[in-house]
Design a protein that fits this description.
Oligomer: single chain
Number of helices: 6
Structural class: alpha/beta
Largest sheet: 5 strands, parallel
């Protein structure tokens, strides 16, 4: 979007001033939405991802599954970090009847039993011991402070989605994964 020149006439009306700011912001937002739709719809239609959602809250899980499935992705839902570690262990060790590893893991950070941070550390250890490619793991958390982000990255996660997130946030995260896997 090109920078434009605007002018204001005196006496300055509040409505005129607001319109000048809002029109420019709306142009920027509209362009961002168009670009995001192109990016997300292109990756979802061309190559749907296999997503492992690890979320203990039933409502959050249901909403996230609906968004992912609407975008055309395949979703497997687990409710604990321990179950995610067990599933990844089975898939990486080639156990019979094991599912193939997912393209993306969306991991809730705070879960009873094994936290998402601990589960991620264990999944990374499994990947290292089996010489498997590391899967992108994105944190799902209501805590969006810098130290929370740092803890997620230190555990081996690749990124962060703050709850509540919307379809655009999720599409952007998936587009990053799709670009990474395509490269």
């Amino acid at each position: 979007i090109e920078a434009g020149t605007s002018y204001l006439l005196k006496p300055l009306r509040q409505s005129t001033l607001i319109r000048q700011f809002v029109e420019r912001d709306m142009l920027c937002l509209s362009e961002a939405v168009v670009q995001l739709k192109k990016l997300s719809s292109g990756s979802a239609e061309a190559d749907p991802l296999s997503v492992l959602l690890v979320e203990d809250n039933a409502i959050n899980a249901k909403l996230t599954i609906a968004m992912l499935e609407k975008a055309g992705h395949r979703v497997r839902h687990l409710t604990s970090g321990g179950a995610a570690v067990n599933e990844m262990h089975a898939s990486l060790s080639g156990s019979p009847n094991a599912l193939s590893p997912p393209d993306l893991i969306l991991m809730d950070v705070q879960m009873p039993g094994m936290s998402g941070l601990d589960a991620t550390r264990r999944i990374r250890a499994l990947e290292n011991s089996s010489a498997a490619a590391s899967r992108p793991i994105r944190a799902l958390t209501a805590n969006a402070r810098a130290e929370d982000y740092d803890a997620c990255i230190a555990s081996g996660m690749n990124g962060f989605l703050s709850k509540p997130f919307d379809r655009a946030d999720l599409d952007e995260a998936i587009a990053r994964v799709a670009r990474r896997t395509a490269a």
